[in-house]
Amino acid sequence: MLLASRVEAAPPSVADRWTLLDPRPANHVSIRATTLSDFAGFDLGYRRALGHHLSFGVSLEYMYPDTGYGQIQAIGHGLELAVWIARPWVGPYFAATFNVGQNFVFTIPELNSLAIGGGADFGWSWDLPFHINLGVAVGLRRMKPVKESGPLCSLRRECVYLFDEFQPHFALSFGYRF
To answer: Do 177 and 25 form a contact (C-beta atoms < 8 A)?
Structure first.
């Protein structure tokens, strides 16, 4: 009888205490200022928490072309699986990404190039009041060309996603949890 009462009165685990005191919203949308090598851009993202330490996300990325190459547009799509050290949306995390990138001529979309690849990021996220979230992430990404249009990327350096080596990646995000 005494042993049974001790088992029932055991304190909850650390993860359970956090959940009871401050439940985390499972959804997170963000807009991120991002760089990839020498290119800058932004992306819109959505993440969904999967339990106490995982999240899955999708993103749509747009990278600005260099001056004089405005006709060559770059759009990327990404999938992300993140492991959070403490809990989703708070503190450090590690993420693995899968990306598909497309470069195309704005006036002739049939003239395009496609690349697939992946990367790894390390980030940190801060909670603010009113479900607002700030974050920063750094990492590396590598893309492999799958389809190339010869005349489009004759200057390969101007096609954002057609780099065949690791490229540094940096992102600063502003998000909302719901």
So the answer is: yes
The DSSP code sequence of 1-46 is -HHHHHHHTPPPPHHHHHHHHSPPPSEEEEEEEEEETTEEEEEEEE
The per-residue pLDDT for 144 is: 93
Q: Would you say the pTM of this structure is higher than 0.90?
A: no
Using a pLDDT cut of 90, give the percent of the chain over it.
58
What is the DSSP pairing of strand 112-127 with strand 91-105? antiparallel
Short-list 139, 141, 131, CA closest to 174: 131
**N-terminal to C-terminal alpha carbon distance within the chain:** 44
Contact 168, 140 (CB under 8 A): yes
Nearest to 153 by CA among 103, 119, 110: 103
Taking residue 126's Cβ as centre, other Cβ atoms within 10 Å add up to 12
